[in-house]
Queue: 2 jobs
Job 1
Amino acid sequence: MARKSVVSFTSLIELLLILIGISIAAAPIVFANANTLKASYSVENVARPLVKLKRPVVILISSDGFRFGYQFKTPTPNIHRLIRNGTEAETGLIPVFPTLTFPNHYSIVTGLYPAYHGIIANWFTDPNSGETFTKRSQEPHWWLGEPLWQTVVKHGLIAATYFWPGSEVKKGSWNCPPKYCQPFNKKVPFEERVDTVLGYFDLPSDEIPSFMTVYFQDPDSQGHRVGPDHPEITEAVANIDRIIGKLITGLEKRGVFDDVNIIMVGDHGMVGTCDGKFLYLEDLAPWIEIPESWVQSYYPLLAIRPPAGVSPAIVEDFPARLHYSANYRISPIIGLLDEGFMVEQRNLSQRTCAGAHGYDNAYFSMRTIFIGHGPKFAKGRKVPSFENVQIYNMVTSILNIQGASNNGTASFSNFVLLPNR
Ligand SMILES: [Zn+2]
């Protein structure tokens, strides 16, 4: 394509983004940072001593797509027990952009934004090698950074993963040992996942993992199918609460509930897509033709990679607050969709009315939960919302180990955790 065409392509793209309601401008949001955070008053000022366990243990739980606010949909006595006796992000945990499952889960365990940990979407093509990353890709070259299980094992401690994106990737000190690392299988009942984790506490004390992950794919699976306001979500949330109750009871029976640090999070929220906010790239042909082969993904992340020879120069920078640049894997043209919008190549009259996520993390609907419970978390404390890249440092701080460098704020943990005695 001639240079002149390139220029016109670029301006047309901008026009296109404006015309079709896609915003590449920054939306206002307040992000909490270490300087502005002030935890609410708590009578406790030091971590509680361990009674039965010999060393600190963290169980990191993810309930996929647990939108902030779901905890009020129905009685959730077990989740609320953790909230009441623990520390909560009062207005939710802020996911990283794009608010998708793999980028966020991997940010939680590395403390890195997707541009730095390399998992820039759930699905993408590497423009250099032509290889495609999918949710099943386990080759270590995709997965940058140092996830918590690797950090933990590097320090001579034991880590156990009952599912987590990236946990089966053998990298550095982590070789996904069969005793402590479960290959993903969504059919494994949630009860079995919890029973396995509880079983670790029956091992001799030097075999109890210091760090464990547990992952539940609900209520995300229901959210995609029926949207966030359907009774099926309420049911799924009640079920997650029941599973948390099972974990609590099992830990109590073993006399370790008050010794274990439980961090319960989600990866992102969910928004309804029932408002008919549909855009079809084909309808834009009079202004600009975007061949299907250029489009890496449609929604909620519109990622377009034109072929070699077409070099779009976007005049307006993508908002820096999204930290979504400086990685060659990221497509050169990203359409930041307004909340609830869906984009497709053409109108096939297959409109769905359900739920989606992946949008700008400034939207409140994309927020999820953060609850910390255990000896390092003050009881009944509320902290302002923060981004999930802070969690990595929080875990290494609880375990008293030196973490790898990351995008979290080194001192952040001091605002959320109780100091050691
Ligand atoms: Zn998810």
Note: Residues 57-271+358-416 form a domain with the Alkaline Phosphatase, subunit A fold (CATH 3.40.720.10).
Job 2
Amino acid sequence: MTRFNAWNVFKNGFTGQKNWDRQWRDPEPKKEYDIIVVGGGLHGLATAYYLAKNHNKKNIAVLEKGWIGGGNAGRNTTIVRSNYMMPGNHEFYEHSLKLWENLSHDLNYNVMFSQRAHVSLFHSPSARDDAARRYNIMRLHGTDGELWNLDTLKNNIPHLNYDNARFPILGAAVQKRAGNARHDSAVWGYARAADSLGVDILQNCKVTGVQRSQSNIESLETSRGTIKAKKVGFAVAGHTSVLWQMAGLGNLPIESHKLQAFVTESVKPLLDHVVVYGVGGAHFYISQSDKGSMVFGGDLDWYKSYAQRGNLPIVQDSAEAAMAIMPCLGRIRLLRHWAGVMDMSMDGSFFICKTPLSNLYLNAGWNYGGFKASPASGWYFADLIANEQPHKHVQNHNLERFEKGINIDERGAGPDPKLHG
Ligand SMILES: Cc1cc2nc3c(=O)[nH]c(=O)nc-3n(C[C@H](O)[C@H](O)[C@H](O)COP(=O)(O)OP(=O)(O)OC[C@H]3O[C@@H](n4cnc5c(N)ncnc54)[C@H](O)[C@@H]3O)c2cc1C
């Protein structure tokens, strides 16, 4: 595979861009792999990459039922941040942010990570206290975080609704190292880097059945034939319960919900930050893409579904939330919207853990927030599969935490998956 560097870009510029290699191969499935990761989203691809890179594992395949990045990985609003405070969560997301900071170099692929700051508005003195607590905890752990008063906020983001808002803006909690990355680039970068280390990426390869003994998986039935595996990792986001039931393991503490994203026509530079607010039943986040589109989203669609399209009430709800905070968007045209299927867990936290089957490993429960998590998720999931032990940062992110009463619920919203935004 041709590496991207200044010389190769220059050389190919003179030869009509015809001499680049394929970015990843399109291999036929082998009869057997040492490790199969099911799911060609970011978590599956990152896991395969770190298995090969960090643990020198060979003979790995990623099985994807459609095309890589066709699920949530290519459908999200691309926000990357590490403003978490619970033990374990904090270390995990900070590790992820650090990986993002060097990801383009590591993968030799520009993931367009832009540290434009994540600005979380507050609208009441109690919300300011809450933000101060969270951001002070972050600072105690060495993560950047600061509070902006109204004047600083106005200087940085002049277009918000400061004069006539239903819920007046008092200031914001800000993480400056946070921002956005381009989701497709992250998918392609991980795929290309994993492929170059020998990982087989098998697209259009849907897992349709699981052959198992009492204690472990023997092979996977797929749309491209039966494939044996010594170890299997599930990283299928909103379809985790489907695969789990295929393996005959019953129910998981996960519900599959839809989340929509919205993109407008392009406008001149208007918003140089990621802006988020949640107050009075509204929940909204917005940024501007490099092409000039406003990219935004809000709440879940409020009912369980596997459909990758959204409903109209949420379109209205999100448009209202946009208008409430940035009235200047009133005449902008919405170009596209779509939905992804979210794996919402009962405490809003993820699973990277072993399972009742000795050679099956689980990566799931990413809720709204799995894009930013994908580098660390791949890193720690690969570590678990390779070493059979959870790293201390993910040791509580298992299926037993509910019966043991371990609290890693970042929002403290309780056991209703719809509330873990
Ligand atoms: C609208 C929206 C906005 C979001 N915004 C953000 C955000 O701003 N920041 C953030 O951090 N997170 C965000 N997220 C969440 C984030 O996108 C997800 O948590 C994350 O992408 C999930 O992990 P993944 O990339 O591996 O999932 P996916 O890309 O969904 O990967 C799972 C893959 O498994 C495949 N699969 C399923 N069943 C099978 C099968 N039987 N056989 C083979 N393959 C199978 C699917 O086709 C899919 O490609 C958002 C999500 C959505 C939908």
Note: The mean pLDDT is 95.
